[in-house]
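Lab notebook, bench 4. We co-purified these components, and the gel suggests they stay together. Before we commit to crystallization screens, I want a quick structural picture of the whole thing.
Request: model the full complex, all chains together.
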Amino acid sequence: MATAESTPAKADLYEKGTVHADDLSSATVKDGVLFDVKDLEVYFPIQQGFFKAMVATEKKFVKAVDRVSFQIMQGEILALVGESGCGKTTTGRTLLRLEDPTGGHILYKGLPVEKFAAKTLRAYRKKAQIIFQDPYNSINPKQTIFDIVAEPLEVNNVCSSEREKEERVIKAINEAGLRPATEYLYRYPHELSGGQRQRVCIAGATVLEPDVIVADEPVASLDVSIRNDILKLMVEEKEKLGVTYIFITHDLSLAWVISDRIAVMYLGRIVEIGETEEVVANPQHPYTKALISVIPVPDPLAKREHVILKGETPNPVDIPSGCRFHPRCPEAIEACKEIDPPDVRITGDHYAACIRIDR
Amino acid sequence: MSAAKAKAIAPAKKPAERIAHKGILEVRGLTTYFKLGVGDVKAVQNVSFDLEPGESLGLAGESGCGKTTAALSILKLLPENGRIVSGDVLFDGRNLAKRTEFGMSKIRWKEISIIFQGAMNALNPVKETGKQIAEPIQLHEGLSEGKAMVRVRELYDLVGISQKRVMDFPHQLSGGMRQRAMIAMALACNPKLVIGDEPTTALDVMVQAQILELIERLRKELDLSFILISHDLSVMAETCDKGVIMYAGEVVESGTTADIFNSATHPYTRQLIKAFPNIHEKREMVSSIRGDPPNLVSPPAGCGFCPRCDEKVARCETEHPEMVEVQAGHFVRCVHAKSQRSDALVRGDEAAPDLKGV
Ligand SMILES: Nc1ncnc2c1ncn2[C@@H]1O[C@H](COP(=O)(O)OP(=O)(O)OP(=O)(O)O)[C@@H](O)[C@H]1O
Ligand SMILES: Nc1ncnc2c1ncn2[C@@H]1O[C@H](COP(=O)(O)OP(=O)(O)OP(=O)(O)O)[C@@H](O)[C@H]1O
Ligand code: SF4
Ligand SMILES: [Mg+2]
Ligand SMILES: [Mg+2]
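Here is the predicted assembly.
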């Protein structure tokens, strides 16, 4: 949410219109900020029938991401948490320009991603990878593990020899914890367990040695033990290889375990962001407070009060007026229906968007 | 949640004074196999637990440990290749394991109902949800569709879905509403015992909290007994009076949830608890349990957990541990477990770590 003022150099780039591959290769990280996201909007037009479209007075949109600002620091794990449909996947995909923003900017090392020329985008995609939400549908069941992991190398044409390709594939598979890699190379996905398949996805994402990985619910469908192995692996890759992770999860307790910072999303907006331990110990936004209060913990004696919100998240087509959380907010007052709350700084880089926080 | 009652969960080999039942459900030595080409899958072995009226019991363990099979065995709804090999399921004094299919049809829905795993996503997409909920009512109470729909409307009220939604198709309802509808269906014929097989697994935390709160309210209002099957230990800790931890088809630990979480004794239970984060404690990496569960076609001779256990001793590999009542009502299946009443722990020749809880 906290965004640094853009430097004149960046402003120039907007003027120039397109960002070329050379700009990308010479770009550097300033003040540790890898991504600077400002007022990002991703609206999807609603498909309407012909007749409806004729009579409709205004075009309707799914406001999947609705003016979101935040930064991603180099080498951190930033968790993006929130309930189903709040816009986590769309935010992650847009960072990699797998979706086009309808408003706002994403600066990667100071360069506007939305202005990347086709060639720049190809170079960028080598640096920024995604692990898709559903591992069962995102890997081809008819390819061997070797072919799956080698594919990004081939698509991007980065290896000068078969030998180099083989070495890089084996290295990535080993690093993803399938050891020895040679034992897995010529197996098919159905010959692996769910956790092993998820490791293959991670190997596929790391084989190009990217700077940043968007991991979209990488452990949602896994048994606890395997889940924890994958979480450990992400922390390891962050620490050893300096990979920056955007860890998308609906499970705040998992975000708490591995992330450096947490961003809580509600209905297309980041409502609170800050250092993980600070946010969990000292949540400020009523939504974050409620979410944290209902996380089950493995201790029957810890009977805490649960703030169970009524109803469900509204449809992102008709976003409530004022504070979008007000219809479900246990702390709402009249003014909440009118005022769209700005970010309030709590301490350091801990921000929350609620008018009832007095600072 | 009411404090757990300290009724003993008897081990498999208890004397047979069962007919004078105290509990609403007493499962004794339940053993269920599935026939496969390669041999029998020993999915549930010698499982025992008790449930009293109005109580909630959690059945937890990793994927494939036999939770669903145990539930389906209770209701005798096993697939064709499954069969109860031995054991008793005493429900209100009647032994369901010995009942005929006709006898079971009088029990299902009316006395015991189940919310099947994944059922909320398996509703017929081209039939109105309310009409699907009405089906068991028509079948079991012999009512017309019209009369059954009156009951469905009442049930929608009870589970917190607007009556206006009865004619909605499944895709028009959110996940939370579909799960409420499944709960309504389970309650349709006023059962005494409801089994929920992973009823909140696919749901967001807030919706999960709503559903668990609903189940809790219904349990009190309708004086229901409830078996909650979950792979999520934290959910069991929050909602159940008693717990049963399964591993590779067997019960390895059972007792009150306080026994299980605050005096966990089986090495598996203790490792499993550590695998779940507790945001109210110091932040640390959750631990994983190395290795995989054993093959259930030819399970190991000794303790099933032995290959993965940090506390194993020589005899774990050969001796199949008996269930030991470490405290009244707290049972553990581990060679190290000894009744706490005789203070000296007999531990075999090697030294073993302290097992008095974590
Ligand atoms: N291509 C698209 N066209 C139209 N609407 C879309 C599209 N992609 C996403 N949406 C909508 O945008 C909103 C946000 O979706 P998104 O997938 O980003 O949420 P999410 O937080 O990742 O949810 P989940 O936890 O279920 O994965 C949802 O209402 C979704 O239906
Ligand atoms: N119809 C069947 N035929 C053969 N084996 C089966 C059959 N159904 C289940 N099994 C096996 O029996 C064991 C127990 O399965 P069960 O479905 O009871 O596990 P579970 O604890 O409910 O797991 P989950 O948490 O994944 O739902 C597993 O090893 C499973 O593969
Ligand atoms: S601004 Fe008002 S409605 Fe929004 S979170 Fe704060 S108190 Fe609740
Ligand atoms: Mg998503
Ligand atoms: Mg199951």
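Residues 8-46+59-353 of chain A form a domain with the Rossmann fold fold (CATH 3.40.50.300). Worth comparing against the SEC data before the next meeting. The interface with chain B takes residues 83-84, 193, 223-229, 231-232, 235, 250-254, 256-258, 276-277, 280, 290-292, 294-304, 306, 308-309, 312 of chain A (CB under 8 Å).
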